[in-house]
Design a protein that fits this description.
This protein is mainly α. It has 2 domains: 244 residues, Orthogonal Bundle (Fic-like fold), CATH 1.10.3290.10; 73 residues, Winged helix-like DNA-binding domain superfamily/Winged helix DNA-binding domain (Arc Repressor Mutant, subunit A, Orthogonal Bundle). It has 15 helices and 4 strands. A two-stranded antiparallel ribbon has the order 1-2. Strands 3-4 form a two-stranded antiparallel ribbon. Helix 4 runs antiparallel to helix 5.
Length: 334
């Protein structure tokens, strides 16, 4: 009997699929226009920046753009290598079939070459997922990985379920198996994008990973909840919600250059808040990084304002959402 991952199709899942399908019709007009080649490029960079940032990479969209253009970038060599690998890998996306195991291994090699010794091969030892010093998930033994991945890829090839559902299920099951020694998170997100793009090519240009990064804590919560329930429905619901948000916000009017960091800042602001309060909520200790990557871009784009604009360095300074900022938050969270 063939393997069947455990998941429940809830009314919320069906509703989200209908909404996503409706929004894809609008996006097909927007993104397929030749005049929007710049928007596609911006979205690809946002996708890569978001996926790498989830794994701790600190490169900005501007730095990744510079790497793409062959310009020098001052940053940790490993982070530059991660970006180069990701840029190269996403360019190869249309060369792979999602259910082909060798293609999966080749993609991992492309994504992780020069970063780990075991790029492109399944792990040969046990691994766990850590949160701080706590193990929150112990992956199956290494000697089970080949069998589990074979079952999962066979299911992916044969299941009649909608691509939106099977892409989420695959993503969850892949993270549960954790088949590689490193790079599992970015590979899971890459392969979900591949599955979706083979259903509808528009997904090559929709920066779902950027939205995932903006809701990183909820992403891990959905993974953990699905594991506790032995049912990936919570993760499917979360990812479909994120996909819908990406589809709705993916217009030039919504400012496609708004970074995941700015999205996180906008979501954190409740009423008027000081810099110290915002850094505490966002769990950020580096004041300079917060100012350069979160605060200044949001102020420049007119998404937040200061309560004391004439005294920008005042110790009493607080920040609040502008009308435009509120609209962006509402759009992303509906």
């Amino acid at each position: 009997m063939s393997y069947q991952p455990p998941y429940t199709i809830t009314p919320k899942i069906l509703h989200l699929i209908a909404e996503i399908s409706e929004n894809l019709g609008r996006l097909s007009i927007l993104l397929e226009q030749s005049s929007n080649l710049r928007l596609r490029r911006i979205n690809r960079i946002r996708t890569i920046q978001g996926s790498l940032a989830i794994e701790g990479n600190t490169l900005t969209e501007q730095q990744i753009t510079a790497i793409l253009e062959g310009k020098p970038v001052i940053a940790p060599p490993r982070e530059i290598q991660e970006a180069r690998n990701a840029l190269s890998t996403y360019e190869k996306l249309n060369q792979w079939q999602a259910s082909n195991e060798q293609h999966l291994l080749n993609a991992h090699l492309s994504l992780m070459q020069g970063l780990i010794d075991e790029a492109g091969v399944y792990r040969h030892k046990g691994v766990g997922v850590m949160q701080g010093e706590q193990v929150i998930h112990m992956a199956p033994p290494a000697n089970r990985v080949i069998i589990l991945m074979g079952d999962l890829l066979n299911w992916l090839e044969t299941t009649p379920d909608h691509a939106l559902i099977k892409s989420c299920v695959f993503h969850y099951e892949f993270e549960f198996i954790h088949p590689f020694i490193d790079g599992n998170g970015r590979m899971g997100r890459l392969w979900q994008t591949l599955i979706l793009s083979q259903w509808n090519p528009l997904f090559i240009h929709i920066p779902v990973e950027s939205m995932v990064y903006a809701q990183q804590e909820a992403y891990y919560q959905a993974l953990n909840e699905s594991t506790l329930k032995s049912d990936s429905a919570p993760f499917i619901e979360f990812m479909l919600t994120v996909i819908l948000q990406a589809c709705k916000s993916d217009t030039p009017q919504d400012n496609p250059q708004v970074t995941p960091q700015v999205f996180k800042l906008l979501n954190a602001i409740k009423g008027e808040m000081s810099r110290e309060q915002l850094q505490t909520v966002l769990k950020l200790k580096d004041r300079k990084s917060f100012r350069e990557r979160y605060l200044l871009p949001a102020l420049t784009d007119g998404l937040i304002e200061m309560t004391l604009p004439d005294k920008p360095k005042s110790s009493l300074q607080k920040y609040f959402l502008t009308k435009r900022g509120k609209q962006l938050v509402e759009s992303a969270n509906t």
